[in-house]
């Protein structure tokens, strides 16, 4: 639609208007999406670099909009976070992951870990700890099959809460990872204060590591530091053999990325594993 004669300000306003309208529509559609069964979860395999064995998975939400098709999480997660709808959806995600865990155990896989992304809103929700306990109980699962991924943004927002919540979750055996490491307000003091198990190097560093000396140095020194702290280190966004080889040389533990596998829809996971990571 052409509604203005090249007036810049008007074009801008119209654009703004359309974006606001789009967002309102998105918000409305999101309200029913869970009830209408439009969400699903894909699981992206992670590989132990030294052995080539399966290490675990990251659970990634997918939304199939009836008209727009697949909507990327970067588009709708922030909307859900603002309206706090991420909290109930987050519990649904956690329960799906527990069911998937149970199903993997029943099919004979025992050595894996499922990493779940946790938004800040959910991390400070008072129901988080009771819900985790209730669900682990319900499915009779050990917490050690799960890892919660927090971003540096979440960590700075609520450092006090964090220090009371984290130990209680750790007591259930659940692990913690810092996601997108290096992109936020990276403070090494978190690593000392918080009971972290794992650091995930952000994929933006990976994409530059072969050409850009600075990116490579950041990766190399992160790996070295994380190992001195005796934490696990995952490199995300591994797309080429060269990247994987360099990561191996630097002593990185775990790789995740399209080279290893794309995120696999839940219904296809068992078949995928039989084929690519036989027991
Ligand atoms: P993230 O947590 O950093 O997740 C990793 C993203 O990198 C995923 O995008 C994944 O599909 C993508 N990826 C994996 N390997 C490669 C690779 O080799 N190259 C490239 N270019 N990308 C790769 P996705 O699934 O689109 O998710 C985007 C973001 O949305 C996630 O970033 C996370 O912040 C958020 N998100 C996804 N699922 C959930 C969820 O269940 N809960 C919450 N709270 N946030 C989620
Ligand atoms: Ca993540
Ligand atoms: Ca990440
Ligand atoms: Ca991210």
Automatic annotation (TrEMBL):
Residues 23-277 form the EAL domain. Keywords: c-di-GMP, Coiled coil, Membrane, Transmembrane, Transmembrane helix. It comes from Rheinheimera mesophila. GO terms for molecular function: cyclic-guanylate-specific phosphodiesterase activity. This is cyclic-guanylate-specific phosphodiesterase.
